[in-house]
Structure formats: structure tokens, C-alpha cells
């Protein structure tokens, strides 16, 4: 629940804003793969499987102390897939690998639904879309007293053009 509030809602908001104001495509993914180890072990002090945790994906690309991706073949395969995705994006701005087994669609500027790639494991990728990923409407309805920038992304592109 806190993950929705602090990560998913703000990621969705940022992706929609970036897609509305940039000419470069914006790609979003949700990482659903829980490897042999997870950041949740470090945080909880247990090895209970809470599913994929925030930043678990980074452990498959970067060497991170809490996660050894060489212990299982499934983790090695996931590491290869994510390195291919991140490398492809850094080379040409498109995260679809050279030999894709999936098609990753960018966020549609000013679209009602947010398109994103769900990564279940190294061989299961699925395009999904959501009107309210992370339950943004619920979180925005609460009287949370924190600095917020409320942006109507549907109007950004038009106002940006008028300013230019």
C-alpha cells in the first residue's frame, strides 16, 4: 500500500507528464519478478517472500550487496534480459532488445490509459494498461498535507505550445 503511494502513483504521474511534453517516447515497466533474494529481506530482516520489492530490478543490472543474481539460472536469465533492455534503451532510446520476444509500446501522450510492460520473469512479458495505476484517484482524494504539484497532463501540451 505504501509502495503504491510513494512509488507507483508518482511514477505514473511523472510518466504521463513526460509523455505529454517530450517528443521522445516514454516507456514504463512494472517489475513483478521476485528472485531468490530481494530488498525486502534487507528491510524486513526475514526471508519471507513479499514479492518483488522496489528497486529489485536494479539488482539484476547493477551489483548490489543484498542480491546475488548468480545463484539461480532464473536470476541469471532475468539479469541478461534486463541488461539487454537497459542497453538497448541507452544505445537508441528504445528499450525493445535487438531480438525481441515482446513489443514494448510507449506511453501515449495525453492518453486516458497508461500503457506499461509487465515483466513477470525472463520469458513472460505482457503489455498492460491502466486508467488508475497505483490507485492515484484514491490517494489524491485523501487530505495528505505534503507539497504536491497537481498537473492536468491533458492540458500540458496545449499550454506548452501557447507559451512557445
From TrEMBL:
GO terms for molecular function: carboxylesterase activity. The keyword Hydrolase applies. InterPro entries: AB_hydrolase_fold (IPR029058), CarbesteraseB (IPR002018). Keywords: Glycoprotein, Hydrolase, Serine esterase. SUPFAM superfamilies: alpha/beta-Hydrolases. The keyword RNA-binding does not apply. Residues 2-139 form the Carboxylesterase type B domain. Gene3D superfamilies: alpha/beta hydrolase. Belongs to the type-B carboxylesterase/lipase family. This is Feruloyl esterase-like protein Est4. It comes from Reticulitermes flavipes.
Amino acid at each position: 500500500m505504501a509502495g503504491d503511494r510513494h512509488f507507483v502513483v508518482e511514477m505514473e504521474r511523472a510518466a504521463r507528464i513526460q509523455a505529454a511534453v517530450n517528443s521522445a517516447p516514454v516507456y514504463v515497466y512494472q517489475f513483478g519478478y521476485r528472485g531468490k533474494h530481494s530488498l525486502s529481506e534487507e528491510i524486513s530482516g526475514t526471508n519471507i517472500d513479499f514479492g518483488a520489492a522496489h528497486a529489485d530490478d536494479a539488482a539484476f543490472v547493477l551489483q548490489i550487496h543484498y542480491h546475488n543474481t548468480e545463484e539461480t539460472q532464473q536470476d541469471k536469465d532475468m539479469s541478461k534480459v534486463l541488461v539487454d533492455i537497459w542497453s538497448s534503451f541507452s544505445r537508441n532510446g528504445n528499450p525493445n532488445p535487438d531480438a525481441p520476444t515482446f513489443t514494448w509500446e510507449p506511453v501515449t501522450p495525453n492518453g486516458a490509459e497508461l500503457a506499461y510492460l509487465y515483466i513477470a520473469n525472463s520469458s513472460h512479458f505482457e503489455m498492460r494498461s491502466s486508467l488508475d495505476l497505483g490507485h492515484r484517484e484514491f490517494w489524491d482524494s485523501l487530505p495528505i498535507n505534503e507539497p504536491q504539484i497537481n498537473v492536468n497532463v491533458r492540458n500540458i501540451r496545449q499550454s506548452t505550445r501557447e507559451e512557445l
